[in-house]
Specification:
Elements lengths: L9 E5 L2 H14 L3 E5 L6 H10 L6 E2 L8 H18 L4 E5 L3 H12 L4 E6 L9 H12 L2 E4 L2 H9 L7 E3 L4 H8 L3 H11 L7 E4 L3 H4 L2 H14 L5 E4 L2 H9 L10 E3 L4 H8 L4 E4 L2 H10 L3 E4 L13 E4 L3 H11 L2 H10 L9 H16 L1
Parallel strand pairs: 1-2, 1-4, 2-3, 4-5, 5-6, 6-7, 8-9, 8-11, 9-10, 11-12, 12-13
């Protein structure tokens, strides 16, 4: 698709690794019309910097003084800088994705300057008010002029809250095309496995980063204990988020890492290459709940609640930290090759891989209507 929009006329505000991944195809479809603005919410090179190169994205406009700050400070600092940017260079529309502090900042800045706002991945609901992301996503949906719901269930959530149905499009989730585009070919995947010393279907891949797990020493202890216990069955690979490592050290739990194969955070292609061949995924990530359905892998989700119930029907099990994690993991491993083959044959509930094209078309229509 060749965008007919003027250069740098669509501000795409993002700040985290998942946003970079999920908005890559849309940014490429928009071409010169996309002005990527990075708030720096994920400021570590392993979490964002390397992804710009890996995903072949244009150099963003960076905001400053945001990463690593408290939530309110992040939003306030980003909002101030975005307002200045949008005043000096008003975009024709603003795009935000998901439920991050960066997304809320972009939404508020667009609303303050009466700039049309498009919310990608609208309508997700956990119904858990303890999640800051739940507040963010509800606020963004209330401000958006176009709400791109990933699934029919997401659309129903919005309609139940009184959102005008003419503002809601069911587009699918952009994660589907992201995974398909970035998943390495089989030979490259084999090379990734060989470098890690792992065999196909012969390991568990785990990630832990959410504050509900990392900021609670008891929860963190329970998760690491159960992951360590799984090493009696298969090796457990744990790419460790910098914040999680710091919390493990602060809680005096470093000894629980000894049985695990701990690495630095992985690039997206590397992660997909390993995830595609893991016997089991264990994670508290929202994005991995979606990616597992595209990769056809079983997943244990370690969280108190989820905003992606679509993944729970076939691919994932939601558990709290503790023995329930171990039981669910062992049950998933017991499915064996036949169980994994069944999952691999199922379609993802998150769409057909054309979400970004639908959103790009809707953006063009939105700008044309406002002209």
């Amino acid at each position: 698709m060749s965008s007919p929009l003027p250069p740098r006329s669509i501000a795409v505000v993002l700040g985290t690794r998942p946003e970079l991944v999920k908005l890559t195809e849309l940014i490429k479809l928009l071409g010169p019309a996309a002005h990527v603005v990075h708030t720096g919410q994920h400021y570590d090179a392993d979490l964002s910097g390397r992804f710009l190169t890996d995903l072949d994205l244009p150099e963003p406009t960076y905001l400053t003084g945001i990463g690593g700050r408290p939530r309110a400070v992040q939003i306030a600092a980003a909002l101030t800088q975005l307002d200045e940017l949008f005043t000096a260079h008003p975009p024709l529309a603003v795009v935000v994705q998901g439920d991050t502090n960066a997304a809320l900042s972009g939404a508020l800045a667009a609303n303050a300057r009466a700039i049309p706002l498009v919310h990608v991945e609208a309508g997700l609901r956990s119904h858990d008010r303890n999640m800051p992301e739940e507040h963010n996503r509800i606020l963004i949906d209330r401000l958006a002029d176009v709400l791109c719901a990933a699934t029919p269930e997401n659309r129903l959530n919005l309609l139940a809250e009184g959102i005008d149905p003419t503002l809601v499009d069911v587009t699918g989730n952009t994660v589907v095309e992201a995974v398909r585009a970035q998943l390495p070919h089989p030979d490259e995947r084999s090379a990734h496995l060989a470098r890690a010393g792992l065999l196909p279907d012969g390991f568990v891949l785990a990630t832990v980063h959410r504050p509900e797990n990392t900021d609670d020493p008891a929860a963190l202890h329970a998760i690491l204990t159960e992951l360590s216990a799984l090493t009696t069955h298969l090796p457990v690979l744990l790419p460790l988020h910098p914040r999680t490592r710091a919390r493990i050290e602060a809680a005096g739990l470093t000894h629980l890492l000894t049985p695990l194969r701990v690495t630095r955070p992985l690039g997206y292609r590397s992660f997909l290459a390993l995830a595609r061949h893991a016997a089991l995924l264990v994670s508290d990530s929202g994005g991995i709940q979606e990616e597992a359905t595209v990769l056809g892998r079983p997943l244990v989700v370690v969280r108190n609640s989820t905003e992606r119930p679509e993944a729970m029907a076939d691919f994932a099990t939601l558990v709290a930290p503790g023995p329930e994690l171990g039981r669910a993991a062992r049950a998933a491993l017991a499915l064996g090759p036949d169980g994994r083959a069944r999952l691999a044959a199922l379609p993802s509930p998150f769409g057909d891989g054309r979400a970004s094209r639908r959103i790009a078309t809707r953006l063009t229509e939105l700008v044309a209507a406002a002209a």
